[in-house]
Design goal:
Family: In the C-terminal section; belongs to the prokaryotic molybdopterin-containing oxidoreductase family.
Protein name: Oxidoreductase
CATH architecture of the largest domain: 3-Layer(aba) Sandwich
Organism: Staphylococcus nepalensis
Keywords: 4Fe-4S, Iron, Iron-sulfur, Metal-binding, Molybdenum, Oxidoreductase
Largest sheet: 5 strands, parallel
Helix content: 40-55%
Distance between the termini: 36 Å
Order of helices and strands: EEHEEHEHEHHEHHEHEHHHHHEHHEHEEH
Number of helices: 17
GO cellular component, one term: membrane
Length: 359
């Protein structure tokens, strides 16, 4: 599917290159028998007469159809002209997060062949903070489990995500686990939306204050000796240093900052540590805050402190907006990372790519 980041797969029935119907692939790990209304019916654009069939080049005040060779010549000539006149960093490249990983790889490679790291994708405006927060804490910038884990978790927490509208198939899995298996559902959002109405408990913080309640709940769990010591000893570095950093985040501070009552935060903490597996999913209600990276870090730290990684029905789930935001970043279309999230500031990494690409 080319819409959101759930990753649904479909069988497409056609006749004479016209789409007759679309149905879910039952063996797809993301959606199985489910689809949203966009995935089921939103395919009129495929056969639209407004689709481009040839490149367009501006000539005067109009766009004119040209052959590919002419279009590519126009692009290359202007790239070289700008580079010669103003330097490589006068050029910039934006990869599409609705394209393939391979296209992202080629876009960033083109940018770097032209001598610039001015390459990015739409995650800079949406999900890059989640990627940053996860890399800080667990060294991996994507989901830590599968869509099915959200059905198997003893408790699902949704933070800053209107899941029922933005990631409908994921919402259906969460609702199914909640209704059929009694999994707990807690929703934290500035808006009272459909998932809030379904939840066992809804918390409505002031805008931009999620970091405060996340850190306060984490501190409360540690203060009351409810953290997962065995998991922390095996998998978590610098725990004592981290715990000291939580000192300002008391429940009283969180209540004053967020507007969420102290007793509700205590209830959330006990629900979390008493659950058999916790998944936390979040989206742009978190990542588009000015402290989105730190808030995403706090989400992952809470999961680490409670031992909710590395097993079924647990983990972090940043819900991506476009269908290949994750893959576009994986492919290296970022100014600070090569493909595979390898740092451009690392001399050995740069030398490796220079050799491979003949630069």
């Amino acid at each position: 599917c080319t819409y959101c980041g759930v990753g649904c797969s479909f069988d497409v029935w056609t006749k004479d290159r016209e789409i007759l119907k679309v149905q879910p692939q039952h063996d797809s790990p993301a959606n199985r028998i489910s689809s949203c209304v966009k995935g089921k019916f939103g395919w009129d654009f495929v056969n639209s007469e407004e689709r481009l069939t040839k490149p367009l080049v501006r000539k005067g005040d109009e766009f004119v159809e040209v052959e590919w060779e002419e279009a590519l010549n126009v692009i290359s000539e202007n790239f070289l002209r700008i580079k010669e006149a103003k330097g490589s960093d006068a050029l910039s490249f934006i990869a599409s997060s609705k394209g393939t990983i391979e296209e992202s790889y080629l876009m960033q490679k083109l940018a770097r062949q032209m001598g610039t790291n001015n390459v990015d994708n739409c995650s800079r405006y949406c999900q890059a903070p989640a990627t940053k927060g996860l890399f800080r804490t667990v060294g991996h910038g994507g989901d830590s489990g599968s869509a099915d884990d959200l059905m198997k978790a003893g408790m699902v927490v949704l933070v800053g995500t209107n899941t029922a509208e933005a990631h409908t198939v994921i919402a259906s899995k969460i609702k199914r686990g909640h209704k059929l298996f009694g999994n707990k559902l807690h929703v934290v959002d500035i808006r009272r939306h459909e998932m809030a109405e379904c939840a066992d408990k809804f918390y409505q913080p002031k805008p931009g204050t999620d970091l405060a309640w996340l850190a306060a709940v984490t501190k409360y769990i540690i203060d009351n000796d409810r953290h997962d010591k065995a998991f922390i000893d095996e998998w978590v570095d610098h725990f004592d240093e981290y715990y000291k950093s939580l000192a300002p985040f008391t429940l009283e501070f969180a209540e004053e900052t967020t507007g969420i009552p102290k007793d509700d935060l205590i209830h959330f903490a006990h629900e979390m540590v008493d659950s058999n597996g916790v998944c936390i999913a979040w989206a742009m209600g978190v990542t588009q805050q000015d402290i989105g990276s730190d808030t995403s870090t706090a989400i992952s730290n809470l999961l680490l402190v409670t031992g909710n990684y590395r097993r079924e029905g647990t983990g972090a789930y940043p819900l991506r907006g476009h269908n290949n935001v994750q893959g576009c970043s994986d492919g290296g279309s970022m100014p600070d990372k090569f493909p595979g999230y390898q740092d451009v500031t690392d001399d050995e990494v740069r030398a490796k790519f220079e050799k491979a690409w003949g630069m």
